[in-house]
């Protein structure tokens, strides 16, 4: 029914125009109405009806329905934007500038208005341009007005032909205004979605940075374990009376360990060489305390010494090997530190021949949990950590890191 009314309105408009033309002719001339004018009127009517059918087809294709709202040559759309007016205006201007064939784009940021003219592409092969019907291809004006609200705003888009409203009765725009209005709404929706996604990503990034900061603070607190410091000083005090030379070596290793445990203020990565020196100083202290019960074996090639790695990770694995594997074992044992560099990155393994995984639940697992969390926050899926049984006894833990260092968080 809406389609018939639309085509009937076009016919009525052209018939009314003919009646006005006949009345004007008869009032000024005694001659009959020229046949040429009648022929031109018929041609114009058929062309307008043809454009009306095209208009109906495009409207049904674009909107999926035909009614008074979609058939109109002048389309209005309101879009709610959950951002301040200046951000909304920037989005609106970007959307309008990217419309196909948009020219004469002008915007007044102070007035929160933007306007553009869309000119159909010129095709010299089109017959109606050669026949003088170029006036049927009307330009479309797109305008947008941003209305601020409390922390958000609304945007009113208007798409309409650039000629008077009375011409709508004679010349449908072929669904151009509807198409541009729908395009603008889709483009705005897409940009708002992209902006929200970026904000969510930034929020996740911020949360990840907070987690990393918390992990780093926990790392700083754990860099010098109070019990280790107290026990070492107590052992040195006891050795001062019985074996001063040994006490002197213990204090020297303690000073070396403490100096290398100072936190980095710039947050940069350490190197395997620096971490190995720290762990070696710690192991020397433990060797002085455990005596012959502890044997240390190191196999790290020179080309791996400068490979970047996070601080205290090697130390965590070494401490676990001693505390949970060798100290509780009668007679002690050995700890091996091996590293290598290949195409997949830096691989560091700490193994022991201690008690292995214990069924009594000794240890809290906090150290390894923090290690895994730091690897996730700093490298994502580019780094791996694996721990398993060492043959024939003990545990082996391996960290694999990319050689380029830690990427930007996440």
Please name the defining characteristics of this protein.
410 residues; alpha+beta; 12 strands; 50% helix
Count the strands? 12
Instruction: Report the span from N to C terminus.
Output: 58 Å
Low-confidence stretches: 126-135, 406-410
Rg over CA atoms, rounded to whole Å, is 40 Å
Give the overall pLDDT as a whole number: 81
The profile of the biggest β sheet is: 5 strands, antiparallel
Shape designation: rod-shaped
Number of helices: 11
> Could you give the order of the helices and strands?
HHHEHEEHEEHHHEHEEHEEHEE
Helix content: 40-55%
**Coarse structural class:** alpha+beta
Strand content: 15-25%
The strand line-up of the biggest sheet is: 1-5-4-3-2
Topology:
Blueprint: H1 2-28, H2 35-63, H3 68-71, E1 75-81, H4 85-97, E2 102-108, E3 113-118, H5 127-130, E4 140-148, E5 153-161, H6 176-222, H7 226-242, H8 244-260, E6 270-271, H9 272-290, E7 294-299, E8 308-309, H10 313-326, E9 333-342, E10 345-352, H11 366-379, E11 384-389, E12 395-401
Parallel strand pairs: 7-9
Antiparallel strand pairs: 1-5, 2-3, 3-4, 4-5, 6-8, 9-10, 10-12, 11-12
Helix pairs in contact: 1-2, 4-6, 6-11, 7-8, 8-9, 9-10
């Amino acid at each position: 029914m809406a389609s018939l009314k639309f085509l009937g309105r076009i016919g009525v408009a052209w018939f009314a125009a003919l009646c006005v033309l006949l009345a004007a002719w008869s009032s000024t001339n005694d001659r009959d109405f020229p046949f040429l004018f009648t022929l031109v009127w018929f041609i114009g009517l058929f062309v307008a009806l043809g454009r009306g059918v095209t208009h109906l087809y495009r409207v049904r294709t674009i909107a999926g329905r035909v009614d008074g709202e979609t058939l109109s040559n002048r389309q209005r759309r309101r879009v709610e934007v959950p951002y301040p007016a200046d951000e909304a205006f920037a989005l609106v201007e970007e959307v309008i500038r990217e419309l196909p064939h948009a020219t004469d784009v002008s915007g007044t940021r102070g007035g929160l208005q933007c306007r553009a003219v869309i000119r159909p592409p010129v095709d010299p092969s089109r017959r109606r341009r050669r026949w003088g019907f170029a006036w049927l291809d009307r330009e479309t004006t797109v305008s947008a007005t941003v209305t601020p609200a409390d922390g958000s705003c609304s945007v009113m888009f208007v798409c309409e032909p650039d000629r008077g409203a009375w011409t709508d009765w004679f010349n449908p725009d072929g669904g151009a205004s509807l198409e541009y209005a729908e395009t603008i709404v889709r483009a705005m929706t897409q940009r708002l979605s992209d902006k929200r996604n970026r904000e969510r990503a930034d929020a996740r990034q911020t949360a990840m940075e907070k987690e990393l900061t918390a992990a780093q603070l926990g790392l700083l607190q754990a860099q010098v374990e109070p019990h280790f410091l107290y026990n070492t000083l107590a052992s040195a005090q006891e050795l001062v009376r019985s074996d001063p030379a040994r006490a002197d070596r213990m204090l020297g290793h303690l000073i070396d360990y403490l100096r290398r445990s100072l936190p980095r203020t710039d947050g940069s990565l350490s190197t395997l060489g620096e971490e190995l020196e720290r762990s070696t100083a710690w192991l020397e202290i433990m060797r002085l305390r455990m005596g012959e019960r502890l044997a240390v074996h190191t196999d790290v090639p020179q080309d791996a010494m400068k490979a970047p790695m996070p601080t205290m990770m090697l130390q965590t694995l070494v401490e676990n090997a001693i505390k949970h594997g060798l100290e509780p074992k009668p007679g002690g044992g050995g700890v091996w530190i091996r590293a290598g560099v290949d195409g997949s990155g830096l691989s560091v393994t700490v193994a022991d021949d201690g008690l292995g995984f214990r069924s009594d639940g000794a240890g809290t697992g906090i150290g390894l949990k923090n290690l895994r969390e730091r690897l996730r926050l700093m490298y994502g899926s580019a780094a791996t950590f694996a721990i398993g049984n060492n043959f024939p006894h003990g545990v082996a833990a391996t960290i694999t890191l990319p050689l380029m260092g830690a990427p930007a968080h996440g």
